[in-house]
Write a structure and sequence with these properties.
Elements (H helix, E strand, L loop, with lengths): L1 H7 L2 H20 L1 H25 L3 H33 L2 H7 L4 H30 L3 H4 L1 H26 L5 H30 L7 H26 L1
């Protein structure tokens, strides 16, 4: 097993991944419009939800049920928007085609986009937690660190699937529409597990790592990342 890992991820590949991650981070930092759009949506979701809850007078338990869905609805919007943004510059200037024709390993391209997308999505989702906690329910702030860990686990699966699908969507003209359509069905196991786990977390104040949904989430993450690394090379060659 050790020899396989050393053969698969050698020193040169780590250098490739590091270089590509720095490039992707710079591209995302330049695309401030997409990040601002995501944060504005999160703020609107929190503010409008706050007005609605206060008007109706939702009970604490009912509010937690709604919050468990809003958190991950926000995440899916963030993921589809930012994953599209990840390939926007490369598609416009044919940079992705240049990368695929270069001697850089296809797995390095996938892993670099996975890492840079995971970092930015997790950071933005953490900020959205603060907004939802301030405007909707303080239980989100109380369980902030546990929710952050759960968000990271959910994003591993979503980004693994989304990175592969975004690469495929970038090859067609209607990529902005196609990615959200195909991302949600493939990410449904992650979203379902995250909703049930966050509901238990907000109600009981702890994350049960022996829970069936937690195990399913971890298994899906491993399968999705492994499949993404393997299938990315064949997907972009077609």
């Amino acid at each position: 097993m050790e020899s396989f890992l050393l053969k698969t991820f050698n020193h040169n590949q780590f250098d490739e991944i590091s270089l590509l991650v720095r490039k992707d981070v710079k591209c995302l930092l330049r695309a401030r419009g997409g990040i601002v759009q995501i944060l504005v949506f999160a703020l609107m979701l929190a503010v409008v939800g706050s007005f609605a809850f206060n008007r109706i007078g939702v009970e604490k338990t009912e509010k937690i049920y709604v919050m468990s869905g809003l958190i991950w609805l926000n995440l899916m919007f963030i993921a589809s928007t930012m994953l599209n943004q990840m390939y926007l510059f490369e598609q416009e200037f044919s940079a992705l085609e240049g990368l695929l024709r270069s001697r850089i390993r296809k797995s390095s391209i996938f892993i670099s986009k996975f890492l840079s997308s995971l970092f930015f999505l997790w950071l933005v989702h953490i900020v959205s937690f603060v907004l939802l906690g301030l405007f909707l329910d303080e239980s989100v702030l109380i369980a902030f660190f546990s929710l952050g860990f759960l968000s990271f686990l959910a994003l591993v699966g979503i980004v693994s699937v989304g990175t592969l699908l975004a690469a495929l969507s970038s090859l067609i003209s209607a990529r902005e529409i196609m990615l959200p359509i195909v991302l949600f069905p493939f990410s449904l196991p992650v979203v379902a597990a995250a909703v049930f786990l966050s509901n238990d977390l907000l109600q009981h104040g702890g994350l049960d790592t022996g829970n069936f949904w937690f195990v399913c989430l971890c298994v899906f993450d491993v399968i999705a990342f492994t499949a993404g690394c393997i299938l990315f090379e064949y997907a972009v060659e077609e």
